[in-house]
Amino acid sequence: MVQPKLIIHGGFFSESNTDAATKLAKQESMKRIVSLAHAFLLKHSALDTVVYACELLENDPLFNAGTGSQIQSDGSVRMSASIMDGVTRKFSGVINIQDVKNPIRVAEQLMAYDDRVLGGEGATAFARNQGFEHFDVRIPQRIKEWEIKAASQGKGTVGCVALDAAGKLAAATSTGGKGFEMVGRISDSATVAGNFANAHVGISCTGVGEDIVSASLAAAIGIRVTDGMPLDQAYKRSFAELAAYDGFAGAIALTAGGEWYHLDSHPSMVYAFTDGIFLDIF
Ligand code: ASP
Questions:
Q1: pLDDT at position 152, please?
Q2: Which of 188, 248, 269 has most ligand 1 atoms within 8 Å of CB, for mutation?
Q3: CA 124 → CA 22, 94, 135, distances in Å?
Q4: Which pTM value belongs to this model?
Q5: Distance, CA of 180 to CA of 119 (rounded, Å)
Q6: For the segment 230-249, what is each residue's pLDDT rounded down to a tens digit?
Q7: Which of 144, 168, 239, 282 holds its CA 20 to 30 A away from the CA of 22?
């Protein structure tokens, strides 16, 4: 039996108004959520756990996913979320979904379908058909930022990679986007550039979606590890490619061997790892 392990992230600290108190609050939330998710992982699969962990992160208004998501240029919130099962290699996701509390749960429902990535109105309509109720995820702080058109420097997003007792990996990522983006803009979070898992490794990214897509970041790290490159080298190689255009990104990963890693190209990403005994929070 494999020792179950879990790594989660909550985007970058540089998100709008990150003062010392907010930083501390985010770290406290990470601690609470990584512990709850690890307890869940002891009794559930990696796939179920990454969804559960992302749901907890989406429900926490401190993070830019689900409740607390960034608002786009037209005043609406459009969210993206995806899951990748390392066992089946199935990927499911929603892109630019509106007015649901937990986009990651909608992505989970799509796992059972042939058409597994839905966007825009189709994604929202699918959610309604599945019984997801209308839910406005805008919180007063985000509305205030949007009203004064305060360009948030923030890179948010949440994510989780889990390794379960059967040695199976899964990854999930959920985002409210960059904030103030053009309507129709597509995030990396529901693509394999932002979220990737196979039998060898799982990866979840945050940062500027355009930069992450240009580097195919999660997939590049994943394929390098699959082809035998050590995890740290796969990271360094992939992040070196980002450096060519000063790409803004961070990524967490966990391998089937239980190795975990994190790197960011700009300071600084909030993440937490636990195997149930050891807990590391940044
Ligand atoms: N990657 C997300 C996006 O570009 C944003 C983020 O991670 O903060 O939509």
A1: 55
A2: 188
A3: 32, 9, 11
A4: 0.95
A5: 19
A6: 999 999 999 999 999 999 99
A7: 239
